[in-house]
Design a protein that fits this description.
It comes from Streptomyces polygonati. InterPro entries: Pirin, Pirin_C_dom, Pirin_N_dom, RmlC-like_jellyroll, RmlC_Cupin_sf. The protein is mainly beta. It has a single domain, classed as Sandwich (Jelly Rolls), CATH 2.60.120. Helix content is 4%, strand content 49%. The strands form five sheets. Strands 2, 14, 15, 16, 17, 19, 22 and 24 form an eight-stranded antiparallel beta sheet that branches. A seven-stranded antiparallel beta sheet has the order 3-4-5-12-7-10-13, with no helix packed on it. The mean pLDDT is 92.
Length: 322
C-alpha cells in the first residue's frame, strides 16, 4: 500500500506522553485522497488530531466502488521501510507482487501481511478479470527499533480465528489477540486488529485489554460504540482504561477495531518510509532513487513510482498528536 501524495507531509509520531490512561471518546473524520488513477480513499490515520493507535500509524478505507469495466486499484511498484502493511478486503480482489518474488491474490477476509523490515518494494492492483465491487482497508503498523532492520517478509493467511460474542456480534481477528483468539499473522509489538460484524439489533460488550489504547472505524452501516454514534467515514479514538467495549447497531454494520500498547518510540513517517530521523528517510529515498536496497518487482505492467522531493526543513520526530 502506497502513499501516493506527490507532496507528502512529514508525520512525526510515537511516545507515550500524549496517551490518556483513562477512557476518552474522540471522533475523527476522514479526508479524501487519490490513490492512483482510478481510486479514492478516505484517510483516517494519520489524522489532524491523532497520529497513532498503538503501533497502527496509517489507515485508508476505500469503497465500496463499482469498478466494472474499470481498471480498479492500480498502485505501481513503490518502496517501504520500517513498517508492516496490512491488506483487508470486504469485497473484491487485490493482486500483490513484491521484490521477494511473492505473487498473491488477496480476497475478502484474508490477511495479506507484508513486513518491510530494512527495505522492500511491492505493487498492488485489481486483477485483469476482477469482481464488480472493491471495498477494503489498507493499514500500516510501525516496527519497533529492534525489528525495523529485519529481513523483509510476506504472509498470506486464510481461515482467520473468529469470536462470536452473542447478541449479534461476530469478530474476525486480523492481527494479535482478541478474547482468547489469536491471529497467525506475525506481530512485533502487543496489538490487535479485528473486523467486527454487528447484525441489526445488536447490543453486546466486547472484552478488551485496559493497557491497550483503541480506536474503531466504520466500514459499513452506522453503529454506536461506547455510547457514541459512528457515522460513515469516521473513526472513534477511545484511549486506554477499558475492560469492555459497548457496541450497538440498529442496522447491519461492520467496524474495524484497532488497538495496542502505546508505541513508546518516536518515529518519523514520510511518503512510504518510517525511520527515526531525517537521515533515515533521506537515505531510504536516495536508495530508491538509485535502484539499490529495495530490489525489483517483476510482473507489473508499468513504471515504478518516483520518490517526491524532501521538504526543505529537516524531519524531526515529535509526539503522537498535533
Amino acid at each position: 500500500m502506497s502513499n501516493l501524495d506527490v507532496r507528502p507531509a512529514a508525520t512525526a509520531c510515537g511516545g507515550r506522553e500524549d496517551v490518556s490512561a483513562s477512557p476518552v471518546r474522540e471522533l475523527l473524520t476522514a479526508r479524501t485522497v487519490p490513490l492512483g488513477e482510478s481510486t479514492e480513499v478516505r484517510r483516517l490515520l494519520p489524522n489532524l488530531g491523532r497520529r497513532m493507535v498503538g503501533a497502527w500509524c496509517f489507515v485508508d478505507h476505500y469503497g465500496p466502488d463499482d469498478i466494472a469495466g474499470e481498471p480498479g486499484m492500480q498502485v505501481p511498484p513503490h518502496p517501504h521501510t520500517g513498517l508492516q502493511t496490512v491488506s483487508w478486503l470486504h469485497e473484491g480482489e487485490v493482486l500483490h507482487r513484491d521484490s521477494l518474488g511473492s505473487e498473491q491474490t488477496v480476497r475478502p477476509r484474508e490477511l495479506g501481511l507484508m513486513t518491510s523490515g530494512r527495505a522492500i518494494a511491492h505493487s498492488e492492483e485489481s486483477p485483469r478479470d476482477h469482481p464488480r465491487l472493491l471495498h477494503g482497508a489498507q493499514l500500516w503498523v510501525a516496527l519497533p527499533d529492534a525489528h525495523r532492520h529485519r529481513d523483509p517478509a510476506f504472509e498470506h493467511h486464510t481461515g482467520l480465528p473468529e469470536v462470536t460474542g452473542g447478541n449479534g456480534l461476530h469478530a474476525t481477528v486480523i492481527l494479535g489477540e482478541l478474547d482468547g483468539a489469536r491471529s497467525p499473522g506475525t506481530t512485533h509489538t502487543p496489538l490487535v486488529g479485528a473486523d467486527l460484524t454487528l447484525a441489526a439489533g445488536t447490543s453486546a460488550a466486547l472484552p478488551v485489554d485496559p493497557d491497550f489504547e483503541y480506536a474503531v472505524l466504520t466500514m459499513s452501516g452506522e453503529a454506536e460504540v461506547d455510547g457514541v454514534r459512528l457515522p460513515p467515514d469516521s473513526m472513534l479514538y477511545l484511549g486506554c482504561g477499558r475492560t469492555t467495549l459497548a457496541l450497538r447497531a440498529e442496522v447491519n454494520s461492520s467496524l474495524m477495531l484497532l488497538g495496542g500498547e502505546p508505541f513508546e518510540e518516536h518515529i518519523v513517517m514520510w511518503w512510504n518510509f518510517i525511520g527515526r530521523s531525517h537521515e533515515d528517510i533521506a537515505q531510504a529515498r536516495e536508495d530508491w532513487k538509485t535502484g539499490t536496497r529495495f530490489g525489483e518487482v517483476n510482473g507489473y505492467d508499468g513504471a515504478r513510482l518516483s520518490a517526491p522531493t524532501l521538504p526543505p526543513t529537516p524531519l524531526k520526530p515529535r509526539g503522537r498528536t498535533r
